[in-house]
Specification:
Immunoglobulin-like; alpha+beta; C8orf32 fold; Jelly Rolls; eight-stranded mixed sheet; 39 strands; 637 residues
Length: 637
């Protein structure tokens, strides 16, 4: 039975909430028929009202009503996922379940609603809790309604209205209102170009927006981040208070100053650790060498866990805590590394970052907080060393594909925090270089010896192999080797470069039917070790830009030693395709029973207008077709 789980996390005052046993206006038949187009769920009403009483107190009232059309609508069920903690109080909550006619089937009030601590499986200390109600129901369509009233005892908040939050969810009615003392410097920024018509009202101390009857947004492959595509309104409260700490969020510099103030003077370490660090770095001849020594020390002596107590979402635990416990979250570990560097007179900076594959574009003129991670930046004479402090494996200076080439908030003292960008990479930085020798037998079987070298993100999955047992490593190779026929694994090894994002694999196998033999002919697919490429579908009415987030570069060279007497009967033409999105090149040569196949495939990163999407699809299709080319060999009579 499908279980519809509704999570609540709310922050506001006391209100009496009453509802009738039947809501005929919620009958599915009342919905505008155009809203069913591309919809798995339809939001009947989503209203959120925020009352900022003062910098230390806010009240939030929410109503959310959604009609679930099918079992693909889980996203709509999680519309109000949120949490409360020691700085907030849930005052009232209730939820109702209706059938397709709007008749009440079930309900839950405060005493019926579960209240549990969050157990995410890796946090060792958490004071965040979740409230939720679960209804067992799978007779589609049905409607869910819930309301909440919550008080939040701080104003560190980034109120945002997202009337279209998910793809394939239509909206019948949505509204957002915020009231605040007139003396507060509240500002807002609209990103509503994709929304069409909407209502807006502004008066002293009050702002409100609303929409009606918006069809479902349909996501498209290889598009921008949903957070960039979907319309939203961002509100900035200006001067705020959080757990007794005051700040001004009206500028990026102010936001950074607030974060800096929360985390300054938390870099003290035990005297014994100080002496250990000084001894470790005593022989280092350069700043870079000292950073490397201390980064290795961090990796060898700490591990990542989430610690979320009090203002743990913003403030790091002291360096002494990490020194004692040996663990911390991204903030605590970055602060600990910062403290280690300070001991040898190397300054460094916190960096707030979106660790996502598709980060939201930041508005330089309007601060927001999409950040979910912290790394460290170490200024050098000509460059910056970026340190990902939560990984025990990656080399110094490599921060991974989910941190690269994006806007970040560089935290400085004295109000000098600013937006900067982490390093980007060219496709050749993410290379996979494969060489293989095939000793092909008369029956089409072959002994294969291969070597694969990966760099950048293409070495990521291999780096973790270092600690595996021999049996675990064998199972990995047996699953990784892309030979589709039966093979016996004879030898295998992994080499991980400690100081660079590079790894290499080697293996030897005896494989059956690498080539298909029929009478006097042999049919061979020279690219049989290449991972299968899949072409996206063409879209004739593409709405959004084409975004290729990460570029890469694949280089392969395969040498086939064939049985004596075979000659080429048919061989594909060499390929040389160049496009703005990438390039593909192949070459074939045959001499003295040796066939050599060379392949290069480069995919660029970038963003192109929507009209270019099908050009990219056509390019990938050309590559897919060429990768399937076969060579026909005939044995001389």
């Amino acid at each position: 039975m499908k279980r519809a789980i509704l999570f609540f996390t709310f922050l506001l005052g006391t209100v009496a909430l009453t509802m009738a046993d039947s809501r005929p206006e919620l009958a599915v038949s009342k919905i505008n028929k155009k809203l069913f187009t591309n919809a798995n769920a339809i939001i009947r009403e989503a209203s959120k009202t925020i009352e900022v009483i003062n910098p230390d107190k806010m009240e939030v009232t929410e109503t959310f009503v959604v009609t679930i059309l099918n079992d693909k609508a889980e996203k709509a069920l999680l519309y109000n996922v949120a949490y409360y903690d020691s700085n907030s109080k849930v005052n009232d909550m209730e939820a109702y379940l209706y059938d397709k006619w709007g008749t009440e089937i079930d309900k839950a009030r405060n005493k019926d609603i579960s209240d549990e601590a969050i157990d995410d499986g890796f946090s060792v200390a958490v004071d965040t809790r979740v409230r939720y109600v679960s209804f067992d129901h799978n007779a589609y369509p049905y409607t869910l309604e819930f309301k909440s009233v919550v008080t939040e005892y701080n104003s560190f908040s980034w109120p945002t209205w997202r009337p279209l939050t998910f793809d394939n969810v239509a909206v019948e009615k949505s509204s957002f209102a915020i009231s605040f003392p007139e003396e507060m410097n509240v500002t807002y920024k609209e990103y509503l170009e994709a929304l069409g018509e909407y209502d807006f009202d502004e008066s002293p101390g009050q702002l409100s927006w609303s929409i009606q009857n918006k069809t479902a947004y349909v996501d498209e492959p290889l598009g921008p981040s949903l957070r960039n595509q979907l319309p939203r309104v961002a509100v900035n409260l200006g001067k705020i208070s959080y757990d007794g700490n005051d700040g001004d969020l009206s500028t990026w510099a102010g936001f950074g100053a607030f974060y800096y103030s929360l985390n300054k003077n938390r870099d003290q370490v035990p005297e014994s650790l100080k002496q250990e660090v000084l001894a470790l770095t005593a022989g280092a001849s350069s700043k870079t060498e000292k950073i490397k020594i201390l980064y290795n020390y961090l990796q060898n002596n700490t591990r990542y866990v989430s610690v979320q107590l009090g203002i743990g979402g913003l403030q790091c635990f002291p360096a002494e805590y990490v020194a004692e416990k040996g663990f911390g979250d991204c903030k605590a570990l970055s602060n600990y590394m910062k403290a280690l560097l300070k001991l040898v007179d190397i300054p460094s900076n916190y960096v707030l970052i979106q660790a996502d594959r598709k980060p939201m574009t930041l508005d330089k003129s309007f601060p927001q907080d999409p950040f979910n991670h912290v790394i460290l930046g170490v200024p050098m004479e000509k460059d910056t060393v970026w340190l990902e402090c939560t990984s025990q494996q990656i080399p110094m200076g490599y921060i991974g594909v989910n941190n690269m080439n994006r806007q970040v908030l560089w935290i400085e003292a004295d109000g000098k925090s600013k937006l900067v960008r982490t390093p980007g990479y060219v496709p050749e930085d993410h290379a996979l270089v494969t060489t293989a020798q095939f000793d092909v037998q008369e029956d089409g079987g072959a002994t294969v010896a291969a070597n694969i070298q990966g760099t950048g993100f293409q070495q990521r999955r291999f780096r973790g192999l270092k600690g595996l047992s021999s049996e675990e490593l064998k199972r990995f190779f047996e699953g990784y080797i892309p030979i589709s026929t039966t093979f016996a694994l004879n030898d295998y090894s992994v080499t991980v470069e400690e100081d660079r994002p590079e790894t290499s694999l080697s293996y030897k196998v005896d494989a059956k039917k690498v080539a298909k033999v029929s009478s006097s002919r042999m049919f061979l697919s020279p690219g049989l070790l290449e991972p299968a490429l899949h072409s996206p579908k063409r879209l004739e009415d593409r709405k959004h830009p084409l975004v290729l987030q990460v570029g890469f570069h694949d280089v392969s060279e395969y040498t086939f030693t064939l049985p004596a007497g075979y000659e080429v009967e048919a061989m594909p033409k060499d390929q040389n395709i160049a496009t703005p999105y990438g390039a593909y090149e192949t070459s074939y040569s045959f001499d003295n029973n040796k066939l050599v196949f060379k392949r290069k495939y480069t995919r660029n990163s970038g963003e192109w207008e929507s009209e270019k999407y099908n050009d990219y699809v056509d390019f990938v299709k050309q590559v897919v077709r060429a990768d399937k080319d076969k060579i026909v060999l005939k044995k001389a009579e």
